[in-house]
Amino acid sequence: MELPLFAVLQRTPRVILTLSLILFSLTIVPALYSLLANPILTLSVSSSETNGPPPSDDMHLSHLNSSPVATSTSRTQIRDENEQRCDLFKGEWIPNEEAPYYNNTTCWAIQEHQNCMKFGRPDTGFLRWRWKPDDCDLPIFDPREFLEMVRGKSMGFVGDSISRNQAQSLICLLSRVEYPEDISSSPDKAFKVWNYTSYNFTLHAMWSPFLVKTTKADPTDPDCNLFSLYLDEYDTTWTSQINQLDYLVISSGHWFYRPVIFYENETISGCQYCALPNTTQLPLYYGYRKALRTSLRAILENFKGLAILRSFSPQHFEGGPWDKGGDCVRTRPYRRNETIPEGADLKIHDIQLEEFRAAEEEMKKKGLKLRLMDTTQAMLLRPDGHPGRYGHLQTAELSLRNDCIHWCLPGPIDSWNDILLQMMKTEK
Ligand SMILES: *[C@@H]1O[C@H](CO)[C@@H](O)[C@H](O)[C@H]1NC(C)=O
Ligand SMILES: *[C@@H]1O[C@H](CO)[C@@H](O)[C@H](O)[C@H]1NC(C)=O
Ligand SMILES: *[C@@H]1O[C@H](CO)[C@@H](O)[C@H](O)[C@H]1NC(C)=O
Ligand SMILES: *[C@@H]1O[C@H](CO)[C@@H](O)[C@H](O)[C@H]1NC(C)=O
Ligand SMILES: *[C@@H]1O[C@H](CO)[C@@H](O)[C@H](O)[C@H]1NC(C)=O
Ligand SMILES: *[C@@H]1O[C@H](CO)[C@@H](O)[C@H](O)[C@H]1NC(C)=O
Ligand SMILES: *[C@@H]1O[C@H](CO)[C@@H](O)[C@H](O)[C@H]1NC(C)=O
Known about the structure:
Layout: H1 5-11, H2 15-37, H3 80-85, E1 91-95, E2 129-133, H4 143-149, E3 154-159, H5 161-174, E4 181-182, E5 191-196, E6 201-207, E7 212-216, E8 227-234, H6 236-239, E9 247-250, E10 260-264, E11 267-272, H7 284-302, E12 306-310, H8 344-365, E13 369-373, H9 376-380, H10 414-427
Parallel strand pairs: 3-6, 3-9, 8-10, 9-12, 12-13
Antiparallel strand pairs: 1-2, 4-5, 5-6, 7-8, 10-11
The structure holds 2-acetamido-2-deoxy-beta-D-glucopyranose (7 copies).
One 2-acetamido-2-deoxy-beta-D-glucopyranose (NAG) binds next to loops.
InterPro entries: TBL, TBL_C, TBL_N
Protein name: Trichome birefringence-like N-terminal domain-containing protein
Domain Trichome birefringence-like C-terminal: 138-423
């Protein structure tokens, strides 16, 4: 579909407004997300690709002080009766001198953008924390236990680059026992399949940042940054695969801040940051809710295993928005009472909770399992876990943005896999 942007310019008297919309949609917003846009699991990405995390709602955290955390690091086994009662997602970060459990020489799966130590991050304290739920202890990921549980099974991650971030963390955590064989059926880096041959366990990473059917608004333009989202249609690249999987971890969020056109019933129902004439401007939340609902329906219809919806992963820009020098330079977690969560993050999180609850009901009726991995609150407490300026080579080039969205590897995102294993154990 061609966008008649310049025709619009000639016809409308509101040239200034339209021009600013066009400039916004063509230049600023796409740059925000180019960082998230790279679906490629390469180990050698040039630093120039790291040019823009998304806009942030100023979180006004600078006034908060960071008091030292003094909690026991002792670990105990979770008893069965405790597992049932313990809310894994309410807790604090406590020191863990044993971490990290891998590094950039022992694990090849760390993507350049997240290889913070390689790019000279000077502090290492951020590596040495673990998540402590209030009512129980969360065991650190045990790679052997995990691989025994998934022997002869398969697991898929569906989502954007943060979903991939977790899959790479999992590969690194498992690397103490085994490295997988790449058995991807095509050279498409957006769809990777690995086989842990000693365990006959396959791991799939499936790229679908909007979760629903998506096309470029102008398919003839390779640089087109305007997407058409078919909010009521499945992205069959993953929905057609999931019937062969035993575990599925699905997540999304950040890409919905981009310029997009929403389609429903095969016709345009609205758009966001687009300069289409006579098209209703709809908020990202509108599209997000519908897209999530559609994906959960796809799971309901096609998947028989344990499905996990991982909640929104918050960003931590401070001192300005992402494109005005915003950065994340903290070196330690917040205590729970220090954070002021606000802004877009939590609205997406609210939608996830609501849609999860509705879908969970439906699933229950059919005897299917959908669970929520609600890590948003835990990650709000980790402003210290992002690459910041250490997601690329240290140059004077101002166009290189700070990445306060993805997570360093090793880093706090490793805890998502502690939680994942715990959730899998609870289901057994
Ligand atoms: C990585 O970990 C290995 C094994 O624990 C250790 O020998 C090595 O020094 C570490 N490398 C770096 C760069 O930290
Ligand atoms: C790993 O990190 C160290 C700094 O800790 C850095 O000197 C080295 O180049 C990195 N190696 C790789 C392979 O990323
Ligand atoms: C490996 O697991 C698959 C199921 O994921 C099963 O069909 C196959 O028979 C297994 N192969 C071996 C050698 O155990
Ligand atoms: C994974 O490796 C095992 C052992 O070699 C093999 O039996 C199995 O078929 C492989 N799985 C896939 C999906 O290729
Ligand atoms: C799409 O079509 C269905 C059934 O024809 C209708 O109920 C629904 O309101 C339509 N949705 C939109 C956004 O037009
Ligand atoms: C937009 O809608 C108005 C009123 O319905 C109509 O006169 C005009 O031609 C439409 N413009 C375009 C480009 O479709
Ligand atoms: C947060 O809680 C800790 C311990 O419960 C307390 O020492 C600290 O003063 C609190 N900080 C704020 C900002 O309330």
